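Subject: mismatched residue count in predicted assembly?

I count 241 residues in my input, but I want to confirm that the predicted structure covers every chain. Input:
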Amino acid sequence: MKLVCAKDYEDASYIAAKNIYTQMIKKADSVLGLATGSSPVGVYKQLIKWYKIGDLDFSDVTTINLDEYRGINRTDEQSYYFFMQRNLFKHVNIKPSNTYIPNGMEEDCQKACNDYDAIIKKVGRIDLQLLGLGENGHIGFNEPSEAFTGKTHCVDLADSTLLANARFFKSLKDVPKQAYTLGVESIMMAKKIIVIVSGEKKADILKKVLYGPITPLIPASILQVHPDVVIVADEAARSAL
Ligand code: F6R
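Triage response: the counts match. Full output below for your records.
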């Protein structure tokens, strides 16, 4: 794993965005694995800036999002579908048919996961996966558990995740309790992984992810054995190192 030291969130976003920029310049039809939440918002803003001045072209890019809440409609502002439209897709020339997010409205868990895995298989290996880091060490919505997960699955969100994400909802009880997420195995299949880590709240977990044992109790610790991971962390996130 390579740790890149950024000054603050803005700097971290710029560095992570530069990695995506390089990927897209090298391969116009890149498959990008994308995340939601606070961490990637600055990255998407920077990519939009480069698109608007003509430096980036999304017309051949395909995107696979990590996760979606279960039971939430695409038109719901809290859905990750809505998040991606608002923060990236509607601002660039990506083809809607090339953007994929698990179907949160599919009630049949097995079908939702199988459908998404079929898409991942069809699209091919993710060239670059962008990740945020959960305060409990999750990646995607792979919560701390007894074993590392494989492919797309339905997950009961950990209490710590519900609490951390309550800030996006009216109240804690409005946070969906379940989500569909890419499994750890699928994330690890990506050729390159960029993790953006910002803020003091992530400091303790970042230390464990970088220097602790590899354990499914801290899902992101598995990244230690991926051949090409760049962790971009700002000063606050590095404060416990
Ligand atoms: C989002 C996702 C999550 C977040 C993580 C950090 O698609 O998969 O793993 O990346 O919960 O969230 P933020 O960035 O809001 O701190």
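The helical segments are 9-26, 41-52, 80-87, 109-123, 159-165, 184-188, 203-211. Marking this ticket as 'not a bug'.
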